[in-house]
Design goal:
This protein is an alpha+beta fold and about 100 residues long. It has helices spanning about 5-15, 20-30, 45-60, 70-75, 90-95, and strands spanning about 15-20, 35-40, 60-65, 80-85.
């Protein structure tokens, strides 16, 4: 397992992660400053398109990386297509290590 996924595990333990499409979109629209949206590379095209649209509309950073089954495994879910990180130090690390 690479360090990117390890950092997501740390974010999860610290309560600095939001999972799922609806909760991530709510976070994108909120006025929380530090947020990085992560979309699994194998998420559906519709999901990717909608999340990227919302990120661009609200000026949010996003990255497309990883696989939803792997995210699910490290975050104790079945599959996770979309998630967001809200810790600025972890965000900085993830952006510089993809």
């Amino acid at each position: 397992m690479n360090k990117f996924y390890g950092m997501l595990g740390i974010a999860r333990k610290g309560g600095k992660i939001v999972l799922g499409y609806d909760t991530t979109v709510s976070l994108i629209k909120s006025n929380i400053v530090d947020i990085l949206v992560i979309v699994a590379s194998d998420a559906s095209e519709k999901t990717k398109k909608n999340i990227i649209f919302e990120c661009n509309k609200y000026g949010r950073n996003y990255i497309e990386y990883g696989e939803k089954v792997v995210y699910g495994k490290i975050l104790n879910k079945k599959e996770v297509s979309v998630l967001a990180v809200t810790d600025k130090n972890i965000i900085s690390y993830l952006e510089n290590n993809t």
